[in-house]
Structures are given as C-alpha cells and as structure tokens.
Amino acid sequence: MRRTTLRLVLLTAVVVGLVPVTFLLIGLNVRATLQQKAPDPEAKPAYGLGCAAPTLTSVEGMNQWIDSARTVAGFVGADVGASVQLSDGRSVWVFGDTIRAASVPGPEMVHNSMMVVDKKCIRVVSTPDGGAVVPDGPDGVGYWPTTIDHLAVPGGDKVAVGLMRVSPHGPGTWDFTILGSALAEFWVPTGGTPELVQVVDVGGRARDDRPTWGVSVVVNDPWIHVYGTSRPSPDSTGWALHVARLRLPDITRPDRWQYWDGRRWGADPNTTAAVIPADGGVSRVLSVFQRGRHWYAVSKRGDFLGTDLVIWKADAPQGPFLAGPPVKQIPSTPDHLQYMALAHPHLLPEPGSIVVSWSRNGGGLDAIRADPTRYRPVFARVPLP
C-alpha cells in the first residue's frame, strides 16, 4: 500500500470543526434532542462547504488549536473520524453521527459524513438532499462508519468503508439496535469527488457472541482483510478480534470469503478463531493497519470502561497479535468519556511511532454548542512496539 507524507494541514483542517458524539452510548440520545430540518429540494450537489489552511507543524500545536478554534465549514460535531490517504495524495475521512450548523441545508444530524482534504482545503462531500453520504435505507436503517481503506487503480482509488447497520427505536440512550455490518464501496477519481458505488450487507443479524464484521478493513492487494469483534461471554473484559479475507470482486459474495480458523483460511464463518482473545481484549471498534512487514492493532483495552491505550503487533494479518505495554492512559469517568482509539498511519509518519486519536465526550447538546472542545478528539504520537 502506498503511504506518503501528508502535511499537518490535512489533519488539523479536519478535526477542529468535528465534535465527537459518543458512537454507542450517547449518539442516539443526542439525535433525539435535535430539531430535524426537512431536506431542501433545491439543494445542489456541492463538493465543498468551506476551506481552511492552518499552518501548524506539530501534534502539540494541533491539539492547542483544537482547544481554541470553534468550527470549520459549518460543522459542529461528529464521531469516528477514520481516515485513509489516496494515491493522489489527498486524504478521505469518514464520520458517524454528524451534527451540523443550522445554516447548512438538510437535517441537523445525519448518520454519516465524508470529507476530502488536500494541501489547502477541507471539503465536505455533499448529497443533493443534504443527507448522509451513505443514505439511510427505505426502512430507516442508518449506517455508522467504523473504518476505511483504499485500493489504487488506474484513474483513481476504490475505497472500502466498513459500516454498522443501526436502527433507532426510541429517544433513550439505549433505544437502538445494531443490526449487523455492511461495506460501502466508493469510486474516487484522481483529483475528483467520491462517488458511492454500492452498499452491501455483510453477514447475518448481529450478536455479541459472534463476530460483527467490518470494524476495521485493511486493503493489502490482492486481498481485503475484514476484521470483526465478538464478546463470547457477558463477563469478558473486552472484545475478541477475528479476521476474514476476500478479493474485491467478491465483496458482494460472502460465501466466497475466507475465515481464519486458527490454523488456516477456510470457508466456514462459524469456525473463525480469535486472533486477540476477549479477556483483556480490544474495544468493539478499533484500527488495524500494516507498516512494513508488521501488522498492528490499536485500541483502548476493555472498551469504554478500560484505561489503557494498547498496541498489539503481529507478523501477519491473522496474527498471532501480541500486546505491547500501554502507550497512554485514557480513563473514562461518568461525566468524561474517552473512547474509540484509532490509528492514522498516513499522518506525520515517523519511524517507530504512529499518530493516534481518541474521542472525548463530556456533556449534552447544549454543552457541545457552548463549548465544542468538550466533544473533540485528542491526538498523540505514541511508540510502536
């Protein structure tokens, strides 16, 4: 995979205006408090709603700016923030529940959004109706992105986005159901605008005790490696990590996928083995990436209730993954959640280290609007094991 250096502007332009809203705990509750706006029938597709060109040159300076800036391109907040660098040097970022300013056409919150960032500008990928970039289904099912990667081909990039299918059924914090996984394919022509090609449901109904696929996707030509997490027991202290692989033409054919059973790749999804066990394991959503001949999994150990940000290392996509010592302490409290640690391998790359982010959540919608920094990510450079 092609990994080249991005200027810090590619990161800082994105994160300043994006306020994380908790992916699993708070997002639906916040959505219930919003005044929904009807889509504007006159709204036209727009590639960009704003452009920013910061000149910060360090992760430390970036975090200082995050804590002082207000908004970018009308965005108040969003969660997830997974990213990938394209073959033309730009980066694509995908976000979950995205709160938008009242002046922006369309709903005040959408299930997902996308941005393309180059050396000068952050650009919002918009739809004709101002809705989500991966539209809700006709039955109201929405899509929360979890991961993104790409495959460079002549003329541009094929981009794969891992998704969770979710259905709200009430206004409360837990009034939603995770239905399962999906994968979205985008075509991004060189220098052009991302175009949604297809959305494919993956696997059956989600259950904690079997893998929910698509929490991390890594393209390693000719294979796409799709990672899933499971919790075999309610008493598990984390989530187990599993892996499957497929070739791009088979993205719509789960019967052609191959699953790692602990010894070999096979066709039976019921025999998949954990490459990281659940006890002391990963969060439900995490990052897996390749650098050189090594593979790494970056996660907060123990999910929301855990404390340690940990990096697991392996020599192959199927592991075995071995945990290094904690690289950061990111505990949560009842009024200050820290969660969803993600890796950004293309950002400010340096040998022996990686830039990671995690989300903060500390208050309701009114608190967000009064102080957006309460719901913004934190970035840090941490050592690789």
Structure explained in plain terms:
The chain has helices at 9-15, 27-33, 59-66, 365-370, and strands at 75-77, 80-85, 91-95, 98-100, 109-110, 113-117, 122-124, 142-153, 156-168, 176-189, 195-202, 212-220, 223-230, 240-247, 258-260, 265-266, 287-291, 294-300, 308-314, 322-323, 328-329, 337-343, 353-361, 378-383. The model is unreliable at 1-49 (pLDDT under 50). The chain has one domain (9-383): Tachylectin-2, Chain A (5 Propeller), CATH 2.115.10. By secondary structure, the chain is mainly β. The two termini are 21 Å apart. The strands form six sheets. Strands 12-13-14-15-16 form a five-stranded antiparallel beta sheet, with no helix packed on it. Helices cover 7% and strands 39% of the residues.
User: Main sheet?
Assistant: 5 strands, antiparallel
* Major sheet: arrangement of strands: 12-13-14-15-16
Q: How far is the N terminus from the C terminus?
A: 21 Å
Task: Please report the number of helical segments.
Answer: 4
Helix and strand pattern: HHHEEEEEEEEEEEEEEEEEEEEEEEHE
Number of domain modules: 1
Query: Which structural class matches the secondary elements?
Result: mainly beta
- The gyration radius over C-alpha positions equals 19 Å
Strand fraction equals: 35-45%
Mean pLDDT: 80
The CATH architecture would be 5 Propeller
> Can you count the beta strands?
24
Task: Give start-end ranges of low-pLDDT stretches.
Answer: 1-49
What proportion of the residues is helical, as a percent range?
Answer: under 10%
CATH topology: Tachylectin-2, Chain A
What is the CATH class designation? Mainly Beta
Shape: globular
